[in-house]
Amino acid sequence: MLKLNSCLFLTIGNQDEKNVRMDIGRQAFRANEFYDALADWELDFVSRSDKARTLVTKGSELETVKTMFEKYTILAREYYD
Question: Is the pLDDT of residue 1 over 50?
Fold first, then answer.
């Protein structure tokens, strides 16, 4: 199975995506050699266990939500009004 570095190396010589196989308006999952290697890497990654990360939290969740709500309410008014 190719690793991500090998997968990325495949793109160096193949920057032309004009003839890449498409599926519903975007590159197919295994459209060419690069996407085939990337698909192998993705499938290998999702099948591995022990990927979970322990969240590091500090402060009050309620204060964080209140701060974010105030910040993004202003932005939402700017964009949607």
Answer: no
Half-sphere exposure of residue 61, counting CA atoms within 13 Å on the CB side? 2
CA distance 31 to 27: 6
The model's pLDDT over 18-32, given as tens digits with 9 standing for 90+, comes to 677 777 777 777 777
* Cβ atoms of 53 and 62 closer than 8 Å: no
The helix/strand/coil state of 31 is: coil
Token pair of 44 as six digits: 């290998």
User: Which among 38, 49, 32 is positioned nearest to 5, based on CA atoms?
Assistant: 38
